[in-house]
Write a structure and sequence with these properties.
The complex is a heterodimer. Chain A has an eight-stranded mixed sheet, sandwiched between helices. Chain A contains nine helices and eight strands. By secondary structure, chain A is of the alpha/beta class. Chain A is globular and about 50 Å long. Chain B is an alpha/beta fold. Chain B has a single domain (7-117, 208-384), classed as Peroxisomal Thiolase, Chain A, domain 1 (3-Layer(aba) Sandwich), CATH 3.40.47. Chain B has helices at 25-40, 61-69, 85-98, 142-157, 161-175, 189-194, 222-225, 257-268, 285-295, 303-306, 325-329, 336-348, and strands at residues 7-14, 49-52, 75-77, 104-111, 197-199, 202-203, 213-221, 233-243, 277-280, 361-369, 375-384. Classes of the chains: A alpha/beta, B alpha/beta. The A-B interface holds A 10, 12, 74, 76, 149, 151-153, 155-156, 180, 183-184 and B 16-23, 27, 30-31, 34, 45, 70, 115, 212.
Chain lengths: 268, 385
């Protein structure tokens, strides 16, 4: 799968796309079907979307990128807030020449997508909010634990609860390995950014077609996803069976299928 | 024109971590770079000289590091002469700045030696170079070679384990005043003597600890450093050397510090009495003792008496490693950078409880490699600007 770095405000931003590779300064070819921009969750990275990109790439022009501070993108920090992460995403899309696209965001990435749809409605043709919410609680206890991890005073734990009971060892291993690529300090900063984000009262203002996707076994965002589907005008909701919080990793096929169907339904 | 007094350390940063299993060496270096640049009020884009070495960076490591940091320096230096590398980097940076090859030099170190369970001292000494083929077959370890030096010192001058222990006890006392130090619980001479033998005559507590960590130093012209956020620290003198190409040749007790120290003093134009504090690589207690002798702070054979009676402790005549050194604060494999950082912070007077009163001139000396076998020495004499 082609990969490239795009300089965005001094941050080398790592992008994965489909189709042929292009020269360093040339954006990838995004002419086929819809441009679908995939944004990962807190502590994740674009590598979690490779299977989804492949499936969507047969008829569309999907891409995914690592947020600042995550995996292969530059910066030691996450930029501080969902709106600043969103501004960076918009600047990246500007560099790639994207004027209108479908934003697909998982968990914290969904918040960035939602924020972008509210801040730059003309850029966003449609939203896909996966295992996300307009407000997600992060307890003091979880936050403090993460802070200790960043200081090397507690161990980073593997969160098995993010995966369905039926997850294969390969899925768990891959999730574990992908999560290792991001500094726990950035994951901590993400928690702070997520905690400070609340767009519940703005959901009625979302003007674009919206698809809400949630894993059947995802206790973390089941209620917040339901709220998104209820409050965003005309939103549709798809529940993926045998799937927890890590939708793109565990159920890329079902996610891609739901997205393809949604894209087909978009007004021309 | 001599570069003495023309070049300054403008920014320093010591990473507070001692355990970082979730970070890479480069990540630690990047965090340190940010810290040191913030310290002096410069930005990454101001950096045009990059200097680095680490436990796992290969011959082209500094090239990968530049890419990782997303900088395009016009002067690169990946010199690796062991733990003293970063002390040498300061003089290399000074020469480069003096010659107009760069203006702002960033020196970096990062390591996850502890969380990678690296056996630093008990690994085989002598490296993989030609001379090592005459040493390695006999299984000499790093700690083993330092122990040879200690044995020789005891044999020649009657130095005792209790005198060596004094050094470890002093470092631990200092570490108690450093909130970031890894080992802070006080120890006694008896604790050292009762700890198990690692390589006779060195006990466990005669050996440095193993930690994760890293640091960064920003070097620039004295002129430019005057505009920096903090008071500059001037480079007065520097020197480098190599020694002991085969075991003990020509003399186990004559080490690299002899040559590098003499040059640094000559260049700085100061005397031993002018030095207010020392930052000396304390890989093992014996390292400190023979380094003090070879730098000329005392005569050969007098080291044992010199380190006794509180002389090298805070409040003594020649305070040494107020941060707790490698014996107690941190030792992520190559400690040289922390010698420079602590000396600079002391000269700026920002060390709180462990501050040496009226510190005006400091000496930093790094030993790299394996004392007794091939090793390097690098000395800096620094002054409050």
């Amino acid at each position: 799968m082609p990969e490239k770095y795009v300089q965005v405000d001094g941050i080398a931003t790592f992008v994965r796309h489909v189709g042929p590779t292009t020269l360093p300064e040339a954006p990838p070819d995004l002419s086929r079907g819809e441009t679908v921009v995939c944004m990962h969750g807190a502590g994740g990275n674009s590598g979690l979307f490779t299977d989804v990109l492949e499936r969507l790439g047969k008829a569309h022009s999907p891409l995914a990128f690592d947020f600042p501070g995550h995996a292969r993108s530059g910066s030691l920090d996450n930029l501080g807030s969902i709106s600043r992460i969103g501004a960076h995403a918009r600047a990246l899309l500007g560099k790639l020449g994207v004027q209108r696209c479908v934003l697909l965001g998982g968990s914290m990435g969904g918040m960035v997508a939602l924020e972008t749809a509210l801040a730059a409605p003309r850029l966003v043709r449609a939203l896909v909010l996966v295992a996300s919410g307009a407000r997600l609680a992060v307890s003091d206890e979880v936050l403090e634990k993460q802070r200790l991890i960043t200081e090397g005073k507690a161990r980073r734990e593997f969160n098995r609860a993010d995966y369905p009971a039926s997850a294969t060892p390969e899925m768990l291993r891959r999730g574990f390995m992908e999560d290792l690529k991001t500094d726990p300090r950035v994951a901590y900063q993400n928690m702070l950014a997520v905690r400070a984000f609340d767009r519940e009262s703005d959901l009625a203002r979302v003007a674009c077609p919206t698809l809400v996707v949630v894993g059947e076994e995802d206790t973390e965002t089941r209620a917040s996803s339901e709220l998104l589907a209820t409050r965003i005008p005309g939103a549709r909701k798809v529940v993926i069976p045998e799937c927890g919080h890590r939708v793109a990793l565990v159920a890329p096929e079902a996610l891609a299928e739901a997205v393809l169907e949604f894209l087909a339904s978009l007004p021309r | 024109m001599s570069l003495s007094g023309q070049i300054a350390i403008a920014g320093v940063y010591e990473h507070p971590t001692r355990w970082a299993p979730d970070k890479t060496e480069f990540q630690i270096m990047a965090e340190c770079a940010r810290g040191a640049l913030e310290d002096c009020g410069l930005e990454l884009r101001d950096v045009d000289g990059l200097f680095a070495a680490s436990m796992s960076m290969g011959a082209m490591g500094v090239v990968s590091l530049a890419e990782y940091l997303d900088v395009k320096p016009r002067h690169l230096d990946g010199t690796n002469i062991g733990g003293s590398s970063f002390v040498a980097h300061v003089s290399h940076a000074a020469a480069a700045i003096h010659a107009g090859l760069c203006e702002v030099a960033l020196i970096l170190y990062g390591s996850t030696a502890a969380s990678n369970a690296m056996a630093i001292g008990t690994g085989l000494g002598g490296g993989r170079d030609a001379g090592a083929s005459f040493v390695s077959p006999y299984g000499l370890t790093t700690v083993g070679s330092y122990a040879l030096v200690a044995q020789r010192h005891m044999h020649a001058y009657g130095t005792t384990s209790a005198q060596l222990a004094e050094i470890a006890v002093t470092m631990r006392r200092h570490a108690g005043l450093n909130p970031n130090a890894k080992m802070r619980k006080p120890i006694t001479v008896d604790d050292v003597l009762e700890s198990r033998i690692i390589s006779r005559p060195l006990h466990l507590l005669d050996c440095c600890i193993i930690s994760d960590g890293g640091g960064a130093v920003v070097v620039t012209s004295a002129e430019r450093a005057r505009d920096a956020r903090k008071r500059p620290v001037l480079l007065l003198g520097c020197g480098e050397s190599v020694c002991h190409q085969e075991v003990g040749a020509p003399d186990l007790l004559s080490i690299a510090a002899k040559q590098s120290g003499a040059q640094a003093f000559r260049m700085a134009g100061v005397s031993h009495d002018d030095v207010d504090l020392c930052a000396i690589y304390d890989s093992f207690t014996i390292t400190v003792l023979v380094t003090l002798e070879n730098l000329g702070f005392c005569k050969p054979g007098e080291g044992g008496a010199f380190v006794s009676g509180g002389r090298i402790g805070l409040g003594g005549a020649l305070p040494l490693n107020p941060d707790g050194g490698g014996l107690s604060s941190n030792h992520p494999g190559m400690r040289g950078i922390f010698l420079v950082i602590e000396a600079a912070k002391q000269l700026r007077g920002e060390c709180g409880e462990r501050q040496v009163a009226n510190a005006g001139i400091a000496l930093a000396h790094g030993t790299g490699g394996t004392l007794g076998v091939a090793h390097s020495g690098a000395t800096l004499i620094l002054a409050r600007g």
